[in-house]
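ARCHIVE CARD
Drawer: 12
Card no.: 0347
Subject: one protein chain, sequence and derived structure
Cross-reference: see card 0346
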Amino acid sequence: MKRILTIMAATALLFCSCKEDAFRYDTTPKTGLLSFEGFTVTTDDDVNVISRATSQASGDYVITLAKADGTPVWEKTYSTLLQEIAAGNEGGISLEAGVYDMKVQSRAGEVPASAFSAPVYGTSTTFTIETGKTTTLGTLTCKLLQCAVKVRYNDDFLGMVTGDGACTVEVTAGAPLSYALSYNGGKPTYDESTGYFAINNGSNTTMAITFKGGIEGKTQKMKTSITGIKAQDLHIITFMKKIDETGNASFVIVIDGLVADTELVNDIQGTETGDGNDPNAPTGDGGIQLLSTCDYDITQPVTVPASGAFNLTMQALIPNGTRKFTVDIASTNADFIASVNSVGGTTLDLINPSEAALGIFSIVPFPHGEELFNATVIDFDLSEAQTPLLAFSGTHTFKMNVTDNKGCRKSIEIKLVVL
């Protein structure tokens, strides 16, 4: 009996000890505050080539909050949040300590693979909530999450249209957009809508472009593709009639972007009937000229003086507006070419020069930049080239290659001789 009582007493003591130990644990959740003080959402319309201003986001933007593992925590429209903040009902959210993701988007759900006139803007941020501390987010700026595409045709191309057609643009397989071209009884019209495409493979995203339609009484088909498609890019795809040096006509696709102006040659993959040539097409260079505005005759080699002033100015006239302006550099002096190659290479795009090529302008001060696009008059002042060129004897050739908005082209050589 004594033994039984001893065991019962020990058991009771153990029970009391466990119960007492349980009360020592702090079960208060470890939380912090996500404050909305100073919180704003703006939209950066970076595909608008006229104005790239940042503006206040509209109230229907959706704000979602989730844990790092994707567990949803909170969701509201921006307008609802602003109203609650104004009423003093939403100063912040108490959250367990940890890592969270906030996403802001101009529409709920996934970005559509492709859609006309349906831009989706958004952004996301990751933040950490610490126990007993307040976290603020400040301003979140939403940017276009897709690339935008417009399709155009120049007048000469439209003059060759003899039936309906369409340009199909596809970024995500199985989700193309078709931009219709209507013959319209000899007065062609085309869909000028802006299509928006989701970026599906990061920096390796590719865009496929196909045209099929009635051209000069035949069904013609043109195909090409470009890679490196990025969010916020605006690509204007222009189908143009091209006249080669022999006077024959063919087609070319020109794609204008905010970052790059890429002309795609050899882009006709085949036609269903005919070859698309027009041997009776008129020839011409669109009136493109490069005129001297100084005492030098730039149609002849110009000798760079070893001393004294060197006034070398000229003016390019492009009546139809400049679409592309490149310069090919050649020289009889290998050291000069090596120097040019060290700052970007011997082919220079004046409208969209690469970062590497910017150094060439310290040697030959060509005008450059986006302002040259669509320009009808471009002034050149190469006087400052005198000093750097004197370090390289020989004949240095600068071949100016101009393409205008109607597809007309002209190449003009300027030769500078250093004795």
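Annotation on reverse: The first helix runs from residue 2 to 22. Helices lie at 2-22, 78-86, 155-158, 334-341, 386-389.
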